[in-house]
Amino acid sequence: MLLIAGMWVGTLIFPASPSSWASHLSLGLLFVAAGATIGGLIYNAKKIAPAVRLNTVDVLYPLTPEERKSISRQIAGKTPVDEEHLVIVRAGAVQQRKSLATQLVVMPGYLFVLVGQVSGWVGRGDPFLWILAVVTIFGIVAVVFIVRDFKRTTRFLMGPAR
């Protein structure tokens, strides 16, 4: 719906010519990006943020880098969980899941902005289009890795009660 509204506004702003389709699409995708970002931020404020106490210090902050890596491996399921430090590992997993969830609800807005820019550059035949296309692909790959880590963290937290 936002894409159509943005493209309609684009037809009002830009002169109607066969080459202006990219500008219309770019503006439509900008509307979608704004809607996705605003919706993601509202969802974050209503559903994700209340699940974790805000303004608390990261539970992994006082640990050494090796201990943080060990906890990350336990959360990812790469090493067995150390039962002595289960409370710390679970607290770290909760905080990690909250931050990953926030990234997941905001990232689509960034991707729509990048795709909108790519579509705008395609219409003009810009020679540096490939740079923005590579950045967009990296953004998509980043979302895939965030989803993977979110699933691993969820699997750890929803695993068998210890």
Word description of this protein:
The chain is mostly helical and about 160 residues long. It contains five helices and no strands. The chain has helices spanning about 1-15, 20-50, 65-75, 85-125, 130-155. The radius of gyration is 21 Å and the shape is elongated. The mean pLDDT is about 80.
Protein traits:
162 residues, mainly alpha, 5 helices, elongated
What is the structure about, briefly put?
Helix 2 packs antiparallel against helix 4 (86-124) and helix 3 packs across helix 4.
What's the SSE blueprint?
Blueprint: H1 2-13, H2 21-48, H3 65-76, H4 86-124, H5 129-157
Helix pairs in contact: 1-2, 2-4, 3-4, 4-5
Number of strand segments: 0
> Helix- and strand-based class?
mainly alpha
How far the N terminus sits from the C terminus, by CA atoms, comes to: 47 Å
Give helix % range: over 70%
| Count of discrete alpha- or pi-helical segments spanning 4 or more residues | 5
Task: Give me the strand/helix succession.
Answer: HHHHH
Report Rg: 21 Å
Strand content: under 5%
Rounded average pLDDT: 81
- Report on the biggest sheet: none
- The geometry reads as elongated
Low-pLDDT stretches are none
